[in-house]
Recover the amino acids of this structure.
């Protein structure tokens, strides 16, 4: 018995997966970069920006995933 396969639907799904994967990688890269830059600042420099060291993780998350 032969089966017909709709290759356009399969190709569309895989393209969507690849695009979501690339977006996730870009967001993760932005999170890590933001986190690293803020973490490298001294407490004095963070204070000048109105930030506390405990806020770094949340700020990096917001920059990458909520913007």
């Amino acid at each position: 018995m032969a089966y017909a396969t709709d290759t356009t639907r399969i190709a569309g799904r895989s393209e969507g997966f690849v695009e979501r994967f690339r977006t996730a990688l870009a967001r993760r890269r932005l999170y890590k970069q933001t986190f690293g830059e803020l973490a490298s600042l001294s407490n004095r420099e963070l204070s000048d920006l109105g930030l506390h060291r405990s806020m770094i993780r949340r700020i990096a998350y917001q920059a990458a995933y909520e913007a």
The mean pLDDT is 89. The first helix runs from residue 7 to 39.
